[in-house]
Amino acid sequence: xxxxxxxxxxxxxxxxxxPSSPPVMAYSEPVTAGKRxxxxxxxxxxxxxxxxxxxxxxxxLPKDIILYTDEDEWSTWTxxxxxxxHIELRRWADIMVIAPLSANTLGKIAGGLCDNLLTCIVRAxxxxxATLCGTSHEHLHVEQSFHRTASYVS
Length: 154
Description:
Family: Belongs to the HFCD (homooligomeric flavin containing Cys decarboxylase) superfamily.
CATH architecture: 3-Layer(aba) Sandwich
Number of strands: 5
Protein name: phosphopantothenoylcysteine decarboxylase
Order of helices and strands: EHHEHEHHEHHEH
Distance between the termini: 35 Å
Cofactor: FMN
CATH superfamily: Flavin prenyltransferase-like
Helix content: 25-40%
EC number: 4.1.1.36
Shape: globular
Strand content: 15-25%
Domain Flavoprotein: 40-119
Number of domains: 1
């Protein structure tokens, strides 16, 4: 190994926020189905919005995947100086994967709105780290309004 290269961590830290979108029903399935593969190379923490909780079966998520909700953002600190969850998750994660990225959440991100844990993380994210986003359905990426909104973010 070259002297100037940093050693890779034993496991990458993967943050998986999921917005309020009906396709989020499939969110727990790939994580659960891929659990054996994912947890071999990554430590995973998931973030879901209040609306997305309607579609998530918390019991079916693997026990080693920590699930955070909007309520956790407000319950983890009590006074100025305490750790703030969205900042701690930003520091913790090597990679952020937002899937599915709904048009609603994309619009919030483009407008700089931070009304839930997911959008607070995105606003605070260190973009020198990897960020991946997938649309909520196959036709969204071809809509002109999606491209206009996405151009504000990129």
